[in-house]
Amino acid sequence: MAAPNREQIVEYIKRLETKVKQYQVLLKKRDLQIHALKTKLVKLVKSPNGEATASREPDTAEAAPEEAKSASMVKQAIKKPAPKAPELEERSDTFVKKAAPGATERVKEAIRAKEENAEAKSPATSPDIDPDSDEDQETDFNALNDDDESPSEPSAPTVFTPSVNFEAGEFLSAVLEGEEEKDEMLGMLEKLPGCEPDQKRNVLNSMTGLYWRMIDKMGKRLAHENLPWEKRLFMRYGMLDDKLMADRMDVWEQLYLDKSRPEDSGVYYMDEWLEEISRGNLRYSEIDEMALDGRKPDPNARGATALGYEMINIPQMQRICVGARANQVTIMMQEYCSPSRDNPVVTRAWMKEAMEKILNCDHIMFNRKYKGEDTVVQPLFIVLPGYGQRSGCWEPWSPGKKGTTGPRLCICAFPPRNSMKTLLMGVADYRWEWAKADAMHYWLSEGLTGKWLALFNKKEQRKDLKQVFVDCYQLWVLYESRRIPKLEKRFREFLYQNCPFSDKVKQTLKGGGVFARMIELEDAKKKREEEEQKEIERMKAEREARKAKRKAGAG
Questions:
Q1: Which of 8, 117, 293, 538 has the fewest CB atoms in 10 Å of its CB?
Q2: Quick one: which H or E segment has residue 78?
Q3: Is residue 444 part of a domain?
Q4: Alpha-carbon separation of residue 294 from 288, 290, 297, 421, 478 (angstroms)
Q5: 197: which residues sit within 8 A by CB, 6+ positions away?
């Protein structure tokens, strides 16, 4: 059974601190109430002749017989309030009767015994009410309890109980079995626990380089070998040793048990992507001739040759998602892999839900016109290992099939910040690259890119306008679709025309706000177009009727 992780313990401590503060406020109010009741008792106990039965200081208490008499008077005064009488002038301390010898010690012992009995009878957080008190006093305590509810005890963090038995070192042995780099990787894992922060970074970078060497060999073996599940997980997520994820075994088990297949989702993990390329179901990605020493790749390559081409592209895809100065570690470790509600792991199931939300905000994203016909293409996503905070469009379409194939987008499995924003960067990048490639050398004046550039003056065009588009697109999907204005008017109108919402989203925006006027104009335009279409069809029908009439008369 794994121990509670750091996030669970921190959350548990925060809840305890909150409860302690509530208890402190409760005790403070109780003290104030007790002080007010004591003051009231002192006034009620005073007799009409001006003698007070309660002393002002504990050291000036009466003897035991006097104490019993005073307690009886207090009870009678509480049960039957004394009639109002003119207040008497308080006497000085010289008129207070001195206590009998030994009375102070007896009173202290009696108070101590009473407190011990009270603690034994009731919990400390819920003080007992004196049974001899009257209804007024009980009402005061009830009102205090109503204002300050007794805080509930915070629950301890739930401990993750794995459903799969992970034997120590079993997964690591399965990954490294038969690999030439086994001893080298084990040596680095031994160094890792005792490293200083600077040295640890160097060890992790060395492990990353070793990872890509192993991936190159494993990937090429997919053409003729069915790799074990542990080696596939090593390729997908960088899962090497479960000790590196001791506090997040819930994530480890989630990925270990996910044995779904791509089917028609278009989402591939790295091992699945390479396997489909080796079988010829997917064409290898476009490759630079410089990577092949000036040789042109074989367009009909399959099997090991196609895998060799793609293995050159895979590390470059991963670097695009990570960036030049970000965390390039590919090994799965709990220091970097800490998914949350807003930052989940990029899995096939999550990708499907995320793309449905994005398509509601840009439903013509994958619509294309090919040979005069409107088609909808299927995007392909490749999920890579690592902690990249970006995603990108590797190709706006598959090589040689511009009009009928979708884009190829790459994203890392463990984004360090926000998974949805990371995915939107790649989608916006595709939007830009496709429009630019489709317009060809007219991209500065035509298509989506040309219209976007026209929104800026010469001074504003010094900025990175593609990055401005990516940022605006993120705000468009995340906020504007929920009627939270974040964009300038010109950008909002541009995206409304070129990346339109679905009818489902528009229904939620019709009630008012910045989109009401645009939706109203769009509905009016659709109505005019429908009326014009009906008029055209009516005129055609009349023309056909006249032709038929003339033919009938001639016959």
A1: 293
A2: helix 64-79
A3: no
A4: 9, 5, 9, 38, 44
A5: none
